[in-house]
Amino acid sequence: MTDRLPHEKGFHISWDQIHRDARALAWRLDGHGPDDGAWRAVVAITRGGMAPAMIVARELDIRTVDTISVKSYDHQDQSAAKVLKSPDRDLVGDGTGILIIDDLVDSGKTLELVRSMMPKAHFATVYAKPKGRDQVDTFITEVSQDTWIFFPWDMALQYVQPYRGTD
Description:
By secondary structure, the chain is of the alpha/beta class. The chain has helices at residues 15-29, 50-59, 89-92, 109-117, and strands at residues 10-12, 41-46, 65-74, 77-85, 98-105, 122-128, 138-142, 148-150. It is 23% helix and 31% strand.
């Protein structure tokens, strides 16, 4: 079946899983910053990058954290990426020593826009899809382009009817 909706090939991520994967990302980034292996600051791409950025910042003992707010989705529809809020320009400059964190690179348009603002930053995501993979420097897990990732901040626990029967 090729007319599958995005949510029909889903990859469900729990809070435990995002925590483990973000810690794995921190482990990969540890010691790879330009200042004797250290990073000057973390910039989270909001909103999805905030939880992974907080975990990476904690694991790498990075105390300076800022955000860049980029909107490129309306629910499940992708649109042109635009910056709604920029990080402190005095802090980030051209991006040297700055670690940009997002949950996922999909088409790569968000990271392409952010890279145009901070070309020397290091871009890291927890998950990567093939179309956007060239825009990210470090990631943990690659998923197919047609997979829709359900993050824990988008989900709620509820009862699910069994396939057979009622109990």
